[in-house]
């Protein structure tokens, strides 16, 4: 009897141990299966398209004006990760921007083996590239021995990849092969504002167009300051960094000196360009949004006077300010090539704004959104005056229409964007 019951106990114990073992094995199998399916899910998430972040009222998600196709030779960084970035974290950040990776050989061919030079700046050479798809782009090749350029490359890819606005020169891709680093931008067929202001080969920029350009730039900067998250300070606003598209729309180029942080107190070298630099920055080495506002003010005076800081622009402004008190009488500094063809009120309003922008005290300078309002108001008033005149002449007799048409044609045929007038705010 005793032997029978002890046999039963042994049997039950063995059964319990086997049961426990089976339960543990089952649990392990279950956990292993769950982990596998989790990995599967996350990799399919990675492969999914991550939308481009677009901020600000005027922002748009169009990557390029040069109508990018879907040709197979370019790889979206959503799918292919460049070895240049090294770590997976960085590549993920770039992937989120949605910019494209171009093969070196395609760029080489499109630039006729890097002979189609447009110009050369601190960053390196810029080439015009005719892609096999028919699109035209601008390729900026990083000078390999330039440390500053290397830094700019990383900064620009990260920043421009996620910033899209109709008044910014959008980055459409990059190439990082054979030890070369290249940035690929929308091609701006009409070149830089500085070339239009100072080169004989371009026809004179009319006053009307200068005000429109000022508003375009103000909008691009407003987006960087108030629309981008986190805000971006440009740090190098000047006429050679304002590029013009086919319809003479102005866009802000070169974010090479930009940083995501608002104030970079550790910068050892002075960044930016002589004459456009905020005096406050030179003494404190702290770049703020108001430093961009200062440079923008210099740019406005450049549009008014048709001369740059190297040609004594600021001395001229200082002298004129003594007479004008910052308000009226600015016409004395107007670009002589305009030959008096400007609206005096508009010129004085724009100069008064420019003067506020270059106030030595950053706190007294307007914000970019204020400059957009003032410039929109100038254009709105112009539009209203034109409209008023037109309806008056319509009553008398419909003459002068052909005159207006021909003056529109001679004025670079810029299509004055009605939305820029419509969304203006009274100040
Ligand atoms: N996207 C573009 N489309 C057309 N031309 C461009 C484009 N980007 C640059 N360029 C032209 O290439 C030339 C060199 O530009 P780059 O920005 O390298 O020099 P920069 O603006 O003169 O000086 P910095 O290096 O200080 O910006 C300029 O004449 C500019 O007009
Ligand atoms: Mg430039």
TrEMBL record:
Residues 399-409 have a biased composition (Polar residues). This is Protein kinase domain-containing protein. Residues 381-391 have a biased composition (Basic residues). GO terms for biological process: signal transduction. The chain crosses the membrane at residues 6-30. Signal peptide: none annotated. Belongs to the protein kinase superfamily. It comes from the Eukaryota. Keywords: ATP-binding, Kinase, Membrane, Nucleotide-binding, Serine/threonine-protein kinase, Transferase, Transmembrane, Transmembrane helix. ATP binds at residue 140. One of its GO terms (molecular function) is ATP binding. GO terms for cellular component: plasma membrane. The gene is CRLK1. It comes from Helianthus annuus. Residues 381-427 are annotated as: Disordered. Residues 112-380 form the Protein kinase domain. The lineage of its organism: Eukaryota, Viridiplantae, Streptophyta, Embryophyta, Tracheophyta.
């Amino acid at each position: 009897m005793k032997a029978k019951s002890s046999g039963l106990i042994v049997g039950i114990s063995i059964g319990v141990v086997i049961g426990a073992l089976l339960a543990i094995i089952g649990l392990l199998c279950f956990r292993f299966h769950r982990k596998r399916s989790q990995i599967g899910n996350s990799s399919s998430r990675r492969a999914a398209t991550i939308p481009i972040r677009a901020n600000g009222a005027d922002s748009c998600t169009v990557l390029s004006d040069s109508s990018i196709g879907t040709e197979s030779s370019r790889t979206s960084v959503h799918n292919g990760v460049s070895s240049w970035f090294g770590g997976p974290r960085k590549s993920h950040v770039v992937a989120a921007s949605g910019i494209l990776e171009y093969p070196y050989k395609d760029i080489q061919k499109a630039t006729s083996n890097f002979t189609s030079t447009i110009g050369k700046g601190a960053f390196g050479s810029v080439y015009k590239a005719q892609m096999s798809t028919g699109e035209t782009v601008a390729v900026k090749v990083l000078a390999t021995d330039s440390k500053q350029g290397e830094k700019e490359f990383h900064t620009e890819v990260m920043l421009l990849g996620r910033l899209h606005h109709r008044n910014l020169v959008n980055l459409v891709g990059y190439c990082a092969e054979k030890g070369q680093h290249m940035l690929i931008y929308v091609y701006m067929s009409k070149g830089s504002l500085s070339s239009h202001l100072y080169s004989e080969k371009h026809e004179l920029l009319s006053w009307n167009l200068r005000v429109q350009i000022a508003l375009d730039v103000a909008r691009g900067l407003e987006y960087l300051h108030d629309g981008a998250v986190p805000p971006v300070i440009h740090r190098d606003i000047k006429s050679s960094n304002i590029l013009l598209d086919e319809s003479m729309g102005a866009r802000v180029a070169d974010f090479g000196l930009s940083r995501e942080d608002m104030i970079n107190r550790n910068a050892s070298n002075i960044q930016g360009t002589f004459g456009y630099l905020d005096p406050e920055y030179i003494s404190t080495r702290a770049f703020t949004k108001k430093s961009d506002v200062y440079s923008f003010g210099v740019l406005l005076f450049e549009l008014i006077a048709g001369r740059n800081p190297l040609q004594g622009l600021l001395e001229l402004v200082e002298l004129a300010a003594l007479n004008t008190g910052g308000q009226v009488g600015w016409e004395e500094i107007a670009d002589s090539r305009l030959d008096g063809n400007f609206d005096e009120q508009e010129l004085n309003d724009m100069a008064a704004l420019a003067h506020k922008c270059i106030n030595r005290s950053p706190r007294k300078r307007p914000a970019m959104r204020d400059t957009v309002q003032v410039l929109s108001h100038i254009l709105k008033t112009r539009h209203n005056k034109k409209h008023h005149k037109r309806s008056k002449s319509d009553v008398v007799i419909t003459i002068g229409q052909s005159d207006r048409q021909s003056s529109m044609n001679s004025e670079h045929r810029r299509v004055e964007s009605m939305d820029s007038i419509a969304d203006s705010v009274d100040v």
